[in-house]
Amino acid sequence: MFKIKVPATTANMGPGYDVLGMALALYNTFEVEQTVHGIEMVGFGDIPPHENLVYKSMQKALDFYEHKVDGLRISAKKINVPMSRGLGSSATCIVGGIMIANKLMNNTLSNDEIIRIGTEIEGHPDNIVPAVIGGMTVSIYEEGTVTYSKVNVSKDLRFVAMIPDFTVSTHEARKVVPERYSKADCIFNIGRVAMLVAAMNNGEIEKLRMATEDKVHQPYRASLIPNIENIFKHAKQIGSKAEFISGSGSTLMVIIDKDNMNFEKDMQSLLKKVHGYWQIKVLKTDTEGVKVL
Ligand SMILES: Nc1ncnc2c1ncn2[C@@H]1O[C@H](COP(=O)(O)OP(=O)(O)OP(=O)(O)O)[C@@H](O)[C@H]1O
Ligand SMILES: N[C@@H](CCO)C(=O)O
To answer: Domain GHMP kinase N-terminal spans what residues (predicted)?
Structure first.
């Protein structure tokens, strides 16, 4: 028996659409047991096995290497990453499935191979790369190859995920993003992405607010998240350093200093007044990525 523990991820981080992402210390764990015959998926609700992302991803990796398995029970053991909330739940399933295949094939896959297969399934690398290697990452996906690099993240930062009770499907949220941009908007985002990487690497926390601004996807997705302006305004008033939509939403992410002890309680009071139920999680960066236990 073995377990695969995969971190949640926050993609885009404001301006880095499909490029930037970071792993968070919040995990989904899948347990795998050898059985006599057949593949059984336990704890995934009503999803039939052939539509289950963990199963499909495992099978894709096994098929690629023409490896056959029979007799497996895969259980969703600790599912802490909420589905379709912009915290990389799909990447946990994809990376989880590929890692199960890798273990069954005696760990023949390199990280690059796991990332390549995972990105092919997900379509973009920004959740997959940090889910595999941990930390904050920059990734470029071109002609089937993923090139990636890690960014330093200060241990003094905390990432506050405000998770609403409504979902936003990535597939739907990608439809509202335009096909073309003005030169001014491109320059705006190029500057912010470069500044975000530099400011993170140098620990220049005061530059993070400007560096997480975006004109590529957030202005178009904001309408999918009622009260976003109100929530970000309040977060600023109580000391957040930067605010952005996590992945394709619906989670809103803010960056705070680890010493801002009152932030969670103050934010909770505001969120009780806005429509719906919002959960808050104050998270550290995960620095190691997926683990086989
Ligand atoms: N625990 C789970 N069990 C089975 N399938 C899951 C689970 N979590 C996620 N999925 C699959 O992933 C899909 C959600 O992916 P989607 O990309 O919309 O959201 P996300 O990955 O949470 O958000 P983002 O990509 O913006 O971070 C679900 O429809 C389902 O197919
Ligand atoms: N870059 C992706 C992340 C969500 O999977 C998006 O914003 O659509």
So the answer is: 52-135
Examine the domain organization and report whether 171 and 206 are in the same domain: yes
Question: Does 193 score more than 90 pLDDT?
Answer: yes
Interface confidence, given as ipTM, is 0.98
Structural domain for 178, as ranges = 157-283
Asked if residue 204 and residue 103 are part of one domain, the reply reads no
Q: Into how many domains does the chain fold?
A: 2
Residues 127-160: tens digit of each pLDDT: 999 999 999 999 999 999 999 999 999 999 999 9
Provide the 10 A C-beta neighbour count for residue 197.
20
pLDDT (mean) for 242-246 = 98
Could you tell which of 17, 84, 138, 221 is best to mutate to test the pocket of ligand 2, judged by most ligand atoms within 8 Å of the CB? 17
- The atom of ligand 2 lying closest to the CA of 126 is 1
Domain holding 192: CATH number? 3.30.70.890
Q: The whole model's pTM is what?
A: 0.97
The CB density around residue 267, as the number of other CB atoms within 10 Å, is: 22
CB atoms within 10 A of CB 21: 28
Domain CATH code at residue 19? 3.30.230.10
Q: Pull the structure tokens for residue 242.
A: 């930067």
| 84 close to 170: Cβ distance less than 8 angstroms | yes
